[in-house]
Specification:
Elements (H helix, E strand, L loop, with lengths): L7 E3 L7 E3 L22 H25 L4 H18 L7 E2 L5 H11 L1 H20 L11 H24 L19 H10 L3 H19 L1 H4 L6 H19 L17 H8 L11 H28 L8 H18 L5 E2 L1 H9 L6 H15 L2 H4 L4 H15 L2 H8 L3 H16 L2 H22 L2 E6 L9 E6 L2 E2 L4 H9 L6 E5 L5 E2 L1 H13 L6 E5 L11 H5 L3 H12 L7
Parallel strand pairs: 6-8, 7-9, 8-10
Antiparallel strand pairs: 1-2, 3-4, 5-6
Helix pairs in contact: 1-2, 1-13, 1-14, 2-12, 2-14, 3-4, 4-11, 4-12, 5-6, 5-16, 5-18, 5-19, 7-9, 7-16, 9-16, 11-12, 11-13, 13-16, 18-19, 20-21
């Protein structure tokens, strides 16, 4: 048996056709740094990245809890579970789980209507539903998100990050993240937050944020610094931000950042933590309202997780694929544990996952340790963590936002056809205008529109045979495609009714596997009435409406002239539709 080289596969389906398959290689700047199966060998990348993700996740966990009208500790519990539990079960190499801003509106309404303890029960039940979704392989839906929609979602998240972090770079720290709706009006709206930021400028915060951005830009451009995997740029920004603010306390105490400008972590140790914890109210297990909330949480959290997983796989430098069914089960188990311990719902989160990738993480160990650091901070390091300026974290998120919504991405997408840039732009606009799920949903609708339009245009192929004898018009051969759905009815109807009177047409279904009954009805109606326009019709391999293959002579009653045209079409050297 002749061996075929690994990098070349000769196609046997057609003469002279070959396809070259090249092994996947990492980008040049990552050569030699490929992840290994031994998690210990990845630690030099994953540990520093985990610290960066921990520092980014810490204020987000607290901010989302406050925005959800939940105890601040519940956000931290969700973050800890997302790291320690979900990362351990999940097979995603880069995703980071925790409380999500996209669920805040649902949480606010549910907590208000059910009460906190009953809401925790709904979180537990939602987790069980997600486990069931994974068991029945519902994760396959992740593969139906078009790449243009995913890229639009990532770009919109980048734009939101930039606009929402600008106030914190100015020193206005009233709301670190809140929800992911950009165009919300009023004092809670992000655009209004920028105005307030200009009105409350903090020179120290601006200096730390601008200095942090400068460090990150320089770090990316100097190979020697970029290759310091034990010391990623974002970690340097945080450390220098703490040092700068501490020094400022000695040099100019009045200008030092304090209070709301710093990370705020509840202290008190294990005993205080235990006193603040809440647990589900299982006495409400029979309440239908609890199950309604649970179903909503399970559906939205699962969709957000699948979107995030698809996005993280695209951002992964090594293009590894995450098993989505296992991810749903991991998220479900995480939500069950989080609810039992008094935490908010957990999903995979794009902001934290993006920060994880850009900090140089190589495996899920980074996500796991970010949960360990959150737990350690709650138990032992609250005082130390409360010295981190939010402006330093804003610099990191501004840099992440720029990478997600870089100008080159827009240039590349706009150079593509409308079937790519239209869903891309629609997703961005409507994510900014409404929220993540609505924006992605509208982007999907736009993408499906172009898919349907493309499908309609390829329902058939038209070939013209030269006219002979006394016929003024050439014979038209319409070769039907492999599969025609009811959506192709309009296209087939159009081409049939545009045929000139007195012409001859051959409708060839020899390549078709399935023809929808609506299309069959249209074809047979045309064949029955074509004589009124002096059109000769020949049907080839077109089944009857009852699904029985008719004989041309008996069912379609072609004229002698039609039979001659059919024989001529079959004898033609050039096949129809080419």
């Amino acid at each position: 048996m002749e061996k075929v080289p690994n990098d070349t596969v000769e196609g046997a389906a057609g003469a002279g056709r070959a396809r070259t398959v090249r092994a996947s290689v990492p980008p040049p700047n990552l050569a030699g740094l490929e992840p290994t199966r031994d998690w210990r060998k990845n630690l030099r990348f994953d540990l520093p990245a985990s610290v960066v993700v921990f520092l980014v996740a810490l204020p987000l966990c607290l901010g989302i809890a406050v925005a959800s009208d939940a105890p601040p500790l519940s956000g931290l519990i969700a973050g800890i579970v997302g790291g320690v539990v979900v990362a351990w079960i999940s097979a995603s190499h880069t995703a980071v789980s925790g409380p999500a801003a996209g669920l805040t509106a649902i949480c606010v309404g549910a907590i208000g209507s059910l009460g906190w303890e009953a809401f925790l029960l709904a979180v537990v039940i939602a987790g069980a539903m997600q486990v069931l979704l994974g068991a029945i392989r519902a994760g396959i839906f992740a593969y139906y998100f078009p790449s243009s929609v995913i890229k639009g979602m990532l770009a919109s998240i980048g734009i939101i990050l930039i606009i929402k972090q600008v106030p914190h770079a100015f020193g206005w720290d009233a709301d670190f993240e809140g929800d992911l709706t950009l165009l919300r009006q009023g004092e809670a709206g992000p655009l209004d937050q920028i105005r307030l930021g200009f009105e409350h400028l903090e020179p120290a915060a601006m200096a730390i944020a601008l200095g942090g951005l400068a460090i990150l830009v320089v770090w990316e451009r100097i190979p020697t610094l970029k290759n310091l995997r034990w010391l990623p740029g974002p970690l340097v920004v945080v450390v220098l931000g703490v040092v700068a603010n501490t020094v400022l306390g000695f040099v100019a105490p009045s200008a030092q950042l304090s209070g709301q400008h710093l990370v705020s972590l509840p202290g008190g140790g294990l005993s205080e933590l235990w006193r603040e914890m809440s647990f589900p109210d299982f006495h409400r297990i029979g309440d239908p309202a609890v199950y309604t909330v649970a179903l909503t949480l399970a559906a939205v959290a699962s969709i957000e997780t699948l979107l995030c997983i698809e996005a993280m796989d695209k951002l992964d430098p090594y293009k590894r694929s995450t098993p989505t069914n296992r991810e749903l089960m991991a998220q479900g188990i995480g939500n069950m544990v989080s609810g039992l311990l008094g935490g908010l719902p957990v999903t995979a989160v794009i902001v934290r996952g993006s920060a994880n990738i850009h900090a140089g993480a190589r495996s899920r160990v980074s996500s796991f340790f970010h949960g360990v650091w959150l737990l350690t901070a709650v138990l032992l390091l609250a005082f130390a963590m409360n010295h981190v300026p939010l402006a330093a974290l804003a610099a990191i998120l501004l840099h992440v936002g720029y990478k997600l919504a870089r100008f080159e991405l827009f240039q590349k997408m706009l150079k593509q056809g409308p079937e790519l840039w239209a869903p891309f732009l629609a997703t961005i606009v409507f994510v900014l205008a409404f929220d993540l799920l609505k924006g992605v949903g509208i982007g999907m609708v736009v993408a499906v529109f172009f898919i349907l339009r493309s499908n309609l245009s390829t329902a058939y192929f038209v070939h013209h045979l030269e006219s002979t004898g006394d016929r003024e018009h050439p014979t038209v051969v319409i070769q039907l495609s492999e599969n025609l759905s009811f959506l192709n009815r309009a296209g087939v109807n159009k081409v049939l009714h545009e045929l000139p009177d007195g012409s001859s047409v051959i409708l060839d279904g020899s390549l078709s596997h399935t023809i929808h009954p609506d299309v069959l009805e249209l074809i047979h109606e045309f064949a029955d009435t074509a004589h009124t326009r002096s059109i000769d019709v020949v049907l080839v391999d077109i089944p009857s409406q009852a699904g029985i293959q008719p004989s041309v002579e008996e069912d379609n009653k072609p004229s002698v002239r039609g039979r001659e045209l059919l024989a001529r079409a079959h004898a033609s050297d050039e096949p129809p539709g080419q």
